Structures are given as structure tokens and as C-alpha cells.
Description:
Two copies of one chain form a homodimer. Chain A is an alpha/beta fold.
Amino acid sequence: MKKILVAGLGLIGGSLAMALRGFEDFEVVGAVRSQATFEKARAMGAADRLTFDPAAELPGADVVILCQDPAGIIAFLEEHRDRFKPGCLVWDVCGVKTAVMEAANRLPRGVDFIGCHPMAGKEVSGIANAEPGLFRNTHFIVTPGPEATAEHLDLLRRMADWCKFGDVIETTPERHDEMIAYTSQLMHIIAVSVCDNDELFSCQGFEGGSFRDCTRVAALDPAMWTQLFTLNAPALTKMAAALEARIHQYRTAIENNDREALRAMLAHASDRKKRINLERARGDDVRPSF
Amino acid sequence: MKKILVAGLGLIGGSLAMALRGFEDFEVVGAVRSQATFEKARAMGAADRLTFDPAAELPGADVVILCQDPAGIIAFLEEHRDRFKPGCLVWDVCGVKTAVMEAANRLPRGVDFIGCHPMAGKEVSGIANAEPGLFRNTHFIVTPGPEATAEHLDLLRRMADWCKFGDVIETTPERHDEMIAYTSQLMHIIAVSVCDNDELFSCQGFEGGSFRDCTRVAALDPAMWTQLFTLNAPALTKMAAALEARIHQYRTAIENNDREALRAMLAHASDRKKRINLERARGDDVRPSF
């Protein structure tokens, strides 16, 4: 029997371990650090087996999945670089990829690291919130290094399929980080910025779907998102500056009561949104499901 | 049999007419302007009866509900001011209240106008998208004038109950407009501003739930939102300026790699979001359902 080692059983790691149970002829071993996570993971049946000692498992692990926070992933790669099994596949789940791929460059030859980002999540963290269906119909982004083997990429796709991801997107670490700055990190900056308004606690009764949707992700983990934001500072600050400038343009048009300009700006954005909705609807039809 | 006249059968008016059918001993009459809306409303059974001539219906209408766009509501009040039945209840569905209440001040004495805002909607408009369940568990905001009768307020609450609104919130037009600038209008400014980014069409495959949620309302009706924004300019521009400033603070902390400041800001906002989630959960238990 082959072995998958999932290092770190939080929301993502716990969900992945559960989702991967029964995959081909692999045993799923979960590595935890706290007694509380151990107890909870055992009660939930989160893995075939649990351990406090990843170092002892690494030499026999055919697949290693790193599910700690960004600093934890980078530290694990450094601490255990010489314990990985030659020929094994290592992948991670970090929301930034350039910094992680740089750390993985220091692994020995023959250890195949493929950067991954399962675009799934919740506003709550920890094993208690993990569930095997978390990845259903979400994107699984993959940033293979130049030496990634076709065999490992195929294995990764089979795992993604088993976990019910909606699709697998291959790209470069740099492109991933630019796109994620826009589609994910900026949405979190917006959500926390909206929640910093004095009226947050007095607006009850006036909130509709758009307010709930926009602020949903504000209940984030401050330590983890501090890491994610600062590890992707150039791309994210560029996106934030563009957003500030555009909100400022809308504000100016409203202040000046310039209805023609405002209407033209709104029509432009609304058309773009409708076009992307249509493109995505078409894309869904033809997208390979793996 | 008494009569409710619903003037304007778009998304909101059409949904209200459908939801109100069967309410007590009222006939629901829908006033439309285009042949296309007439045909669609008839096919959907949107009202007990349809008309192209609201002027002929007004003298016999006990309740009049104005469901046009903001300029249409204000124009209707001016055009028909002397046709309303003495003692009738008139209410509207406009997303700004101060400007509408001012226009309603010119109605004859004995016509009881109560400003309303059903906080329901969709990203698509028109009778074709109307549905009687649109208001289920949403807020129904009411801004009564100083001369609103208790009898009419009670009638309004019974209608809200019949339409399955989650609650009825009474407030002033000024307070409504401040709160809506924050909870609704600002969310629409954010959504269109995000969609104006060059990467909108290249980010497919990288978008998660937060991006879909935040941009959902960008496919808005430019003419209507131009009216809503400019009719509420002072409150909205204040909210937009505060948001710009806060995003700028996050950007500066990230640019400076000031992790301590960033972490403190994120912890502050995240705590606020968690507190408001808890307060809302408690509030739901005690809120009268009407």
C-alpha cells in the first residue's frame, strides 16, 4: 500500500485528508501538532491514521501534502528537506505560489514539488469545520516547476478528480499570484475595509444580500492573511491602488452630479459584468471535468 | 371589494403584485405602460386585472403602490396628485427616501403617503424575473411621515406579513438614506469598480466565492442606479471617501511590509465582523416576524 502524508489538519488539510480517503491504493496519514486537533481528527475519522511525528513518516511517503499556513509550509520544507522519499510527489495548498516555489527550489533533486492552490475555503478555520465535500466544483490551480514529471501531474489530476474539484488550471507561480491578488486577496481587503466603518453595528435591519456577500470573508484569520498579503505585496498593492482610483472616479462623478459621466461608467461596468457572466456560462459547458 | 393599484410592473412591482394577490378583500390591479409588459404580466397572472390607465383607477384605489424608478415615482406623484382617493394609503418602493418624501409632501391632505423600501432584489430586472417569493425573509423598511395613521401603518404591516417579509423596520428618511448608502449603494460602487479592472476577462479559473459574491450586483441597471446614487450624493460620497481611505491604509501597511500594523488592523476588522455575526444571530431570535 502506498502512502499520502497530509501535514497539518486544519480546515483545508482536514478536508483534503477526508476527501482523499479511499483514493486508489493509498493510505492517508494525517500529521498533527496539538492534542486537541488529534482528538478532533480521530473523532471525525479525518484520516486512516494520525501521527505527531511527520519526520518518521516522510521516508515512506509517496505523496506529501503541505497544509500549514504559508510560513509553516516554508519552515517544513527547510526542516525536513533531506527526509523526503526519492521520487515522491510533494504539493502544498498555499494561497501564494512564488514564495513557496522559491522555498521548494532548495529540495533535493528527485523530489518533485508541484505548487497547488485549492480555491476552496470558509470564513471559519480548523479541523472542526473541515468536510470532505469542501472542494466540490471549485478550481484546483497547479503551478508545476520545470522538472515536474508527467506521471506526477497525472497523479495530481486523479487526486483532484477524486476530491471532486470542478477543474484543474495549470499556470505559472507569477501569473497565479497576480490573478489571486485580484480575485481573492483584494476581496478580503474590501471586506475588512467595509467592516471598519463606524456604522457596522448600527446598520442592522438595513443590510441586504449585497452587504452580507461582500463582507462575508471579513471574519478572516489575521495571522494567516498578514502572511498571504505581505508575501504577495507587489501584485496586491497594484490592485488596491487601481481600486482606490476607480472608487474615487465614481465618487467624483456623484459629487459633481455629473449624471452623464456616471451613467456611462455604470453602463461600461455593467456590460463587462454581463459579458463575463455569459463567457463563464459558455465556459462551463466545454470545460473538461477531469 | 377594496382595491390595491400597483403602478409599474417591473421586478419589484411585478413581484409585489403577485405576492399581494389574495390579500384580505383586496383586488390587485397592475398598471403597465408597454404592450410587452402587459402580455408578460397577463401570461404570468401577475395581478387580478391589468390596465394601461392608472388615472382611471386612482379615484377608486384604497392602496396605491408606486413601483417605478425614482424619477418615475416622483413624476407620478406630481402628475396624479389630485386623482388619489381621499383617505387612501400610498406607498413606494424607492431605494432612497428623503427625495421621495419631499415629493410626497405636495400631495393633498388626507392622502397618507408612507415611504417604503423592500430590501429585496436580483441582478436582473423586469417582470420576466418577478416572483411572489422575492421578499421572503428580507427587511421591509418604512419611513412614515408625521401624519401617517396608525390604521395605515397596521395595514402596511399586514401586507408585509402577507408578502412574507422577515421584519418591518421603522425609521426616518434621513437615517434610511445614510444606512442604505453604506449597506447597499457602497456595495454596488465596489462591485462595478472591481469589474472595471483590466484583468476581469483574463481571471477565469482563478475566481472563488468571494469574487463571485462581491461582483454579483455589478450587472446593474445604469439609468436607475445613476438616479439612486445622485439622489443620495451626500451620504454616499461620505461612505465612499471613508472606504477609499481605509483601503489606502491597508495598502500602505502592505507596501511598507509593516506586519504588526497589518495584523492589528486585520484582527480589529475580523473581530468586528465576528461580533456582528453573533449579534445578528441573537437578533434573529427576538425579532418580531410580523
